[in-house]
Amino acid sequence: MSLFKLALSSIKGNSLRSLVIFLCVLGIASFFVTTTLIVNGAQNSLNKGLQRLGADVLVVPQGAEAKVETALLMGKPTQVWMSNDYINKVKNVRGVSALSPQIYLQSLFGASCCSVSEMFLVVYDPATDFTVSPWLQKNLGRGLNKGEVIGGSYIFVPPGEKDIKLYGYGVTLKGNLEATGTGLDQTIFMTRDTAMAISQSSKITAESILVIPDNEISSIMVKVAPDTSAHKVALQMLLDVTGVTPIESPNLFGTFRKQMLGLLWGFIALLSIAWVLSIVLIGLVFSMAANERRREMAVLRALGATKFYILRVILSESSLLAVGGGITGILLSLAAIFIFKDYISGSLGMPFLFPSFSSIFLLLLAGLLLSLATVVLAVFSPALRISRQEPAIAMRE
User: What number of other Cβ atoms are within 10 A of residue 125's Cβ?
Assistant: First the structure.
C-alpha cells in the first residue's frame, strides 16, 4: 500500500480525530486570510484613492477636514464652502506649481444610476484640472462638453435609458474610471456648465432644487513644484492663508489609517491566540490518538517498516488534513468577503478594494503554509514518539 493510501485510510478510520484537526485548520486558515485580506484591501483602496486624486496637498475650509475625508473615502454626503478668493491666495504660496478647485454638490440618495445608495456629485474646472482630465485625454481625446459626465465604477446608465437623470436633467455618461474602493467609485464628475444646467433644470424638473452658491468652492487640489517639499508648502500655507487647512497627501485619510492600524494589531493578537490554542488542541488530540494507535504502528514495524517510514505516514496524514482544511477555509473566506465586502466595508467604516491577483495568490499560499505549519508543529512530537517505540513492547501493552 502506498504512503498516500495508508494515510488516507488512517484518516477515514479515525473520523472524529480527523474532523477536529480539519476544523481547527479550517478556522485558522479562514481567520488568517479574512483578516489579512480586509487590511490589505483597505490599504489598497486608500492607495488607489490617493493616486486618483493626484494632488500633493488638498486645501479645505478650516474645520471641514473630517467631512471632506469622509466624503472622498466613503462617498458620504457633505457640503463645505469657501470663497473663490482662496484660489489666488493659495496660488501665491511659494512652491505651488498648479492648483485646481472642486465643488462638492448635494448628493443623491437611491439613484437608479448608482450601484450603492448614495451618489456624490463633484464639479471640476477643466481649465486647471489634473485629476480626471488625464483620463479624459487618454480615453476620449478631449474634455467633457456641456451635458456630459464621467463616473466612478459604480455609476451606470439605467437599463432602458439613454442617459442619466440628475435632478430631472439628462446627462451623457462618457465612461467609468477605474475602481478604487473609495467614495470616488460612486462619484459623478462634471464641468460647471453642466452643473449650472442641472441647477436651472431642477427648478422645474425636480422635487428639490440643486443649489450652487456663487463664487464658492469646496476644496483646492494643489501640486507642488518639482524638488519642493509638500510639507514645507503646507506649512507655508498655514502661515500665509487663514481660514483653510492644507492636508498633505500622505496624511490624507489619517484617521482611517490609524483605525486600520489598530484593527491590524487587534487581528494579529487574536490570530496569535487562536493559532497557539489550535496547536495545543491538535497536539492533545493527536497525542491521545497516538496512544490508541501504538499497536497499529507496532504491526507496521513488525512487517518491516522503518522508524522514518512511520514518521512519514503520520506526517503525511496530518499534512493531508492541513491541506484539506486550509484550502476549504481559504475558499470559504474568499467567498464570504466577495459576497459581504460592502457590508464589511460599511461596518468597519473603511473602504475596500480587492488586491491584485498576484497579491491574493501570495496570500493564499501563505494561508496554506500556515495551515501546514500549524499541524506539523502540533503533531511532530507525538509522531516522533510513536515512531521510536519498540514493536515488542508496544504489542504487549
Answer: 17
Against a cut of 0.85, is the pTM above it?
Answer: no
Cα–Cα distance between 155 and 188 in angstroms, integer? 7
User: What residues contact 108, with CB distance under 8 A and at least 6 apart?
Assistant: 114, 118, 119, 121, 166
Does 84 fall in a domain?
yes
Q: Using CB atoms within 10 Å of the CB of residue 173, give its burial: 0 to 12 exposed, 13 to 18 middle, 19+ buried.
A: middle
Residues 219 and 271 in one domain: no
CA distance 114 to 110: 8
Does 248 reside within a domain? no
Query: How many domains would you assign to the chain?
Result: 2
Number of helices followed by number of strands (H, E) in the chain = 12, 11
Grid coordinates representing 93 are 504660496
On whether the CB atoms of residues 33 and 379 are closer than 8 A, the answer is no
Strand residues in 218-304 grouped as ranges (E): 219-224, 244-248
Q: Is residue 252 part of a domain?
A: no
Contacts of 381 by beta carbon, 8 Å cutoff, 6+ apart: 283
98 lies in some domain: yes
Give the separation between CA 327 and CA 262, rounded to whole angstroms.
Answer: 28
Report angle CA 336, 340, 345 to the nearest 5 degrees: 125
Contacts of 23 (CB under 8 A, 6+ apart): 325
Contact present, 34 and 337 (Cβ < 8 Å): yes
Three cell numbers written together for 145: 462638453
Half-sphere exposure of 181 (CA within 13 A, CB side): 27
Beta strand 148-151 with 187-190: parallel, antiparallel or unpaired?
antiparallel
Quick check: helix, strand or coil at residue 141? Answer: coil
What is the domain range of residue 213?
Answer: 63-242
How far apart are alpha carbons 333 and 136 in whole angstroms?
37
List the chain residues with pLDDT less than 70: 1-15, 49-51, 73-77, 107-117, 250-260, 288-311, 346-351, 383-397
State residue 112's pLDDT score: 59
- pLDDT of 251 reads 63
CA distance 83 to 124: 16
Backbone angles phi, psi at 6, to 5 degrees: -65, -40
